[in-house]
Write a structure and sequence with these properties.
- The chain is of the alpha/beta class.
- It folds into 2 domains: 242 residues, 3-Layer(bba) Sandwich (FAD/NAD(P)-binding domain), CATH 3.50.50; 139 residues, FAD/NAD(P)-binding domain, CATH 3.50.50.
- Helix content is 32%, strand content 22%.
- It starts with a strand and ends in a 7-residue tail after the last helix.
- This is L-ornithine N5-oxygenase.
- InterPro entries: FAD/NAD-bd_sf, Lys/Orn_oxygenase.
- Belongs to the lysine N(6)-hydroxylase/L-ornithine N(5)-oxygenase family.
């Protein structure tokens, strides 16, 4: 069985950026053979949130390569040049392309690596391959859409699988009810409700705000309740000094801080990334609600300081027991569809790595995003997008992606050199039967 230097799980922006970095390192004489496994049947980036008029919240300069190598073939600028749109984009006078265009850029970049990515396979198990007391390789087992199992061996692993939908406790009992769905499947699911009279959107962030506006434009008469526990919708703070927390060198500052200081930093800047829509979007929602006041007709409602205490599945719809946190009163409301714009968990890697848990302890990572392991575990296992608590708020964003992949690539090369030295000392062949 062939042994890859690196196998990557997931082929979204982070691992595409890593593939680009490794390819450019190869041109400089460093040969790390990589392969990626993606469970989606083809490349797609937040496909169910490709809403009309949705735009990026991150500058196009923080693409897959520019912050690491501005002369790379894979910059957003070169993508525009290749598509004959560079002059027209300049005339837009914006740093924030549409989400549709950035998705096309990512798809263009991903297409360069079709030869080393298996789409439509879901990784179900990662097992240790031992020689004596040492784990020297990893066996990655995946299953394709036809239920055929595939096995590959790797010297190193990088996990970049994004987040898993966060479902509030009050909705856990409704799992499987098609009338309740997470924002991650919004466009796919909302098609099932072309004539809904009442829809609830639960959440207070960018996705909740975008979905509220999409429902307003999509339907002419449907009533939409936007429900959140916060007192108001607060805009994201993208002022220059605050934005410095997304600079690559700020990662060093966060990582080198004490655990208590890290927690304080995350808390201080939480609203730069969470529960903080764009100001323009907030103004659009306010305008919709104001026009209702002018016309005297209440189609939509903004239920701030409301908490869903209970959600019940009834024949006529999903019934909420809503608690008004201002008056401490409760009332019931029934909806034909419920959209949960409630964010994501980013700890699914622990489930994937369950057979390797004895080697990783509490899943602490080092500065280069490598999981700290016991001495008898030789493969390097890296995490992308799951290190916010140790590396800062930029970890789940595009902001540091290009720079992070360079750090991981350097760590991979160092690990490869160390492995080669150890094998030479012990007279072990690099081949694996």
């Amino acid at each position: 069985m062939k042994v890859y230097d690196l196998i990557g799980i997931g082929f979204g922006p982070s691992n595409i950026a890593l593939a680009i970095t490794l390819q450019e390192k190869k041109q400089a004489g460093y040969n790390i053979e990589s392969f990626f496994i993606e469970k989606q049947p083809s490349f797609a980036w937040h496909a169910n949130m490709m809403l009309n008029n949705a735009h990026m919240q991150v500058s196009f300069l923080k693409d897959l390569a520019t912050m690491r190598n501005p002369s790379s073939h894979f910059t957003f600028i070169n993508y525009l040049h290749q598509k004959n749109r560079l002059q027209d984009f300049i005339n837009l006078k914006t740093f924030f392309p549409s989400r549709h265009e950035f998705n096309d850029y990512l798809s263009w970049a991903a297409s360069h690596f079709d030869h080393c990515c298996a789409y439509g396979e879901e990784v179900i198990e990662i097992l240790p391959e031992k020689r004596g007391e040492e784990t020297v390789l990893l066996r990655i087992r995946s299953r394709d859409s036809e239920q055929i199992m595939h096995e590959r061996l790797a010297r190193n692993l990088v996990i970049s699988i994004g987040g898993q939908p966060r479902i509030p406790d009050s909705f856990l009992s409704l799992k499987g009810d098609p009338r309740v769905f997470h924002s991650s499947s919004y466009l796919q699911e909302i098609k099932q409700f072309p004539s809904a009279n009442r829809i609830a959107v639960v959440g207070g962030g960018q996705s909740a705000a975008e979905i509220f506006m999409d429902l307003h434009d999509r339907f002419q008469t449907t009533q939409v309740d936007l429900i959140m526990r916060a007192r108001s919708i607060k805009p994201s703070d993208d002022s220059p000094f605050v934005n410095e927390i997304f600079n690559a060198d700020f990662t060093d500052f966060v990582f080198n801080s004490s655990e208590q200081d890290r927690a304080e930093i995350l808390n201080d800047f939480w609203h730069t990334n969470y529960a903080a829509p764009d100001l323009v979007l907030i103004e659009q929602i306010f305008n919709v609600l104001y026009r209702q006041k002018v016309s005297g007709s209440e189609r939509h409602r903004f239920l701030r300081r409301h908490e869903v205490r209970q959600a019940l599945s009834l024949q006529e719809g999903i019934q909420f027991v809503l608690h008004d946190m201002n008056t401490h009163c409760e009332r019931t409301e029934t909806y034909e569809a419920v959209v949960l714009a409630t964010g994501y968990h980013r700890d699914h890697h622990k489930s994937l790595l369950a057979p390797l848990t004895p080697y990783f302890g509490d899943f602490t990572v080092d500065r280069q995003y490598r999981l700290c392991s016991t001495p008898n575990f030789k493969p390097a296992v890296f995490l992308q997008g799951a290190c916010e608590s140790s590396h800062g708020l930029s970890d789940t964003l595009l902001s540091v992606t290009a720079v992070r992949t360079n750090e991981i690539a350097q760590a991979l090369m160092n690990n490869s050199n160390q492995t080669s030295v150890m094998q030479a000392k012990r007279g072990i062949s690099t081949a694996f039967a």
